[in-house]
Design a protein that fits this description.
Keywords: Kinase, Transferase. It holds the Pfam family YcaO. This is YcaO-type kinase domain-containing protein. One of its GO terms (molecular function) is kinase activity. By secondary structure, the chain is α+β, with helices and mostly antiparallel strands. The chain is 36% helix and 22% strand. The protein contains ten helices and 14 strands. A five-stranded mixed sheet has the order 11-10-9-8-12. Strands 1-2-3 form a three-stranded antiparallel sheet. Strands 4-5-6 form a three-stranded antiparallel sheet. α1 packs parallel to α2 and α6 packs parallel to α7. The radius of gyration is 20 Å and the shape is globular.
């Protein structure tokens, strides 16, 4: 498997042991799309959706179990906080001045200290602080800052066997959501982007089959864009408009391995289609209602991309293709190098570490999570 520390059987055993330790009882529902894609929907004893996993056969089960563990650890996060002034927070990294919630706190002239989590950067041996209420939904915002609760996000929290596996997945997630955010803002707000439309025929045979199988299963055509913002960490965005659903089906993926990133984006489309329930449907309708008076945001929600702006693009082989898919030390080193070249410093906090199972929260100042508007969060672009 790509970017994994141990083989599937060992991962599955470890995952099941961890579920027992966390006292988690789950139900799994299986959705198949040909031979190449399985989606697992995880619900609790009350049939409430809790997590999902995607992959080929057993890989989907492992993915679902680890996402369940990740969500449980996130909801029960118990990290130490330190009261820090806004000025001291902003001094941590120069790119924090672009952070929207921090800009809004500054605009409000809030002067009290704020409970913060500490994040460290190993390469530069430094630490920064960031408000706990913007990371942990169970940490109450200070009085006067409750309006910022919508910016709270689990973005960059990932679980894995070993430090490298967890942090690779966490970095990929932050870069992926940043790239999707930039796609929305560049095209619909700044109006400055030509869309790199991936040609299906440029893909390997297995990905062409996967693409076609998913299109047949969902009954709709898929479009894939190359939306890479950090050279070397390939990021792709897939979407399909479907008459059964209020909003387009969406998927994205990031990896130093281009083929794996596209595979994840395509599988996420099938996952989105398979696990959609009444609650998701209602949330999409509420999202449309919330943004009804903002045409720019409505264009984003409906994915009103214009085909005249599409530029046919072939899948380009990258340096990742010359690296072993499970040599995690090399993958981590390369990702660190790519982020540095893109002028991003990344910081992390180890949320959980027992029996070589890690949960790590990664924070990269200067990255964006504007894409959360698709989930009904009325966020402000960073240009305020």
């Amino acid at each position: 498997m790509y970017e994994r520390h141990i083989d599937q059987n060992k991962s599955l055993v470890l995952g099941k042991e961890m579920l027992k330790k966390l006292n988690l009882t789950i139900n799994m529902e299986n959705f198949k799309c040909g031979k190449f894609c399985t989606v697992i929907k995880v619900t609790d004893n009350e049939k409430i959706p809790f997590a999902a996993g995607k992959g080929v056969s057993q890989q989907a089960i492992i993915s679902a179990i680890f996402e369940t563990i990740e969500h449980s650890l996130f909801e029960n996060m118990n990290m130490t906080t330190t009261p820090i002034s806004l000025n001291s927070i902003l001094e941590g990294d120069i790119k924090l001045k672009y952070d929207v919630p921090l800009k809004l706190i500054k605009k409000k002239k809030y002067e009290n200290k704020i409970d913060c989590y500490e994040f460290k950067n190993e390469q530069e041996n430094k630490v920064i602080y960031y408000p706990a209420f913007l990371i942990n939904p169970n940490h109450k915002p200070p009085r006067g800052l409750r309006f910022l609760r919508k910016y709270c996000s689990n973005n960059g929290l990932a679980c894995g066997v070993g430090f490298e596996e967890a942090i690779i997945h966490a970095i990929n997630e932050v870069v992926e959501r940043h790239s999707v955010s930039q796609l929305y803002k560049n095209y619909f707000i700044r109006k400055e982007l030509k869309l790199k439309n991936i040609s299906m025929l440029s893909l390997p045979v297995n990905l062409v089959k996967l693409w076609k199988n998913i299109e047949e299963s969902i009954g709709s055509e898929i479009t894939v864009f190359d939306i890479t913002t950090v050279d070397g960490i390939n990021t792709y965005y897939a979407f399909a408009k479907h008459s059964k659903f209020p909003l387009p089906l969406r998927g994205s993926g990031s990896s130093i391995f281009a083929e794996y990133a596209i595979e994840r984006a395509l599988m996420e489309i099938f996952q989105c289609y398979s696990i959609m329930d009444e609650a998701d449907f209602s949330m999409d309708l509420l999202t449309l209602q919330k943004f009804n008076n903002n045409q720019i945001y409505m264009n984003i929600l409906f994915h009103n991309f214009c085909e005249k702006d599409y530029k046919k693009t072939n899948l380009i082989k990258t340096i990742g293709d010359s690296v072993s898919v499970n040599n995690l030390n090399v993958i981590y080193d390369k990702m660190t190098m790519y982020l540095k070249k893109a002028d991003f410093n990344f910081y992390f906090n180890i949320v959980y570490n027992k029996n070589n199972l890690y949960a790590i929260k990664v924070f990269i100042p200067g990255t964006d999570n504007f894409q959360a508007i698709m989930n009904g969060c009325y966020l402000i672009p960073s240009e305020i």
